[in-house]
Amino acid sequence: MEEKYYLAWLNYVNGVGLKTIEALIRRFGSARNVFFASASELLRSDGINENIIHNILQNRDEERIEAQRIIIEKLGIDILSRNDMEFPCNLRNIYDPPYLLYKIGSIHTDDETAVAIVGARKATPYGKWAAYKLAGDLAKRGITVVSGMAYGIDTAAHRGALDNGGRTIAVLGCGVDICYPKSNYSLMKEIQKNGAVVSEYAIGTPPLPNHFPPRNRIISGMAKGIVVIEANEKSGSLITAEFALEQGREVFAVPGNINSSLSRGTNQLIKDGAKIVTCVEDILEELGMEEVKAIDQQMIELSTHEMEIYHTVKECQPVHMEILSLKTKQSIDNINSIVTILQLKGLVELLPGKILIAR
């Protein structure tokens, strides 16, 4: 059986984390050798306590490895070790990279220029619009967007990249065979087809709260820079920003309303030296990607009324349908009809609460 399945087995053993795997591989040369090592050999391993050795011995079952292999192959999961050529280069070079990376989808060399976008789960319409817009503009320039597939900003960032024909990578705080949150199941499937869903956690691992802070170092580690959009003072997004700074990544923040608690974290980042982002060019210039040009978009014909509505949405976004009606002096019925046409043409998106944004 391939080494990667023995690695997956070792990673699944209770109490065996990153440091333990590294120590065991140094001692025995491979996970397969760990599996077949005697109890006395394991006991002579420096830095490995007896409880972990007990768990390893209790879980040495080739039938279990075979059952796990079948599940992994059935779900289309690939397992990358840090020593594999396919392992993301950016991630390999951080201080504490994961030893294993479970992946569904594909990781390309172009993903090395990725930008991460993170922020509040309970995001405002403004925050969701900013995430969607920036991710879409990055995607149009062929830049991969990395995020965590959580509610709010993460979801808007993934969706913005996908809706604009781009690639996106979701880093999970659970096994890649688990969709969290469950409502993002269809989004997860799209990401797998147009990027990758990745995790350092073994298949079947639930989304426990203590998994997410370590997960955040992978989000920042896979990117050249990280954009924070809406975060309170104790947000997990600020942890991601801290990891980014430790890893030598650029940190960006979208300024927010000073009366909003969701802006305290981002505005503090700016006060502490994070780069202000008001448009995608701010990111590209700081990362030395000014030469990256937008992918040509097919010209879409619009009627006079459609053009008026579209440009008003673009100028005022995010904008409520009733405000749009007042600004254009058209009835709600007419607005609804035209918005439906613009949605079909892929030019606007209707968010919860009858809020419109331009794509």
TrEMBL record:
<comment type="similarity">
    <text>Belongs to the DprA/Smf family.</text>
</comment>
<dbReference type="Pfam" id="PF02481">
    <property type="entry name" value="DNA_processg_A"/>
</dbReference>
<dbReference type="InterPro" id="IPR003488">
    <property type="entry name" value="DprA"/>
</dbReference>
<dbReference type="GO" id="GO:0009294">
    <property type="term" value="P:DNA-mediated transformation"/>
</dbReference>
<protein>
    <submittedName>
        <fullName>DNA processing protein</fullName>
    </submittedName>
</protein>
<dbReference type="InterPro" id="IPR057666">
    <property type="entry name" value="DrpA_SLOG"/>
</dbReference>
<dbReference type="InterPro" id="IPR010994">
    <property type="entry name" value="RuvA_2-like"/>
</dbReference>
<feature type="domain" description="Smf/DprA SLOG">
    <location>
        <begin position="79"/>
        <end position="287"/>
    </location>
</feature>
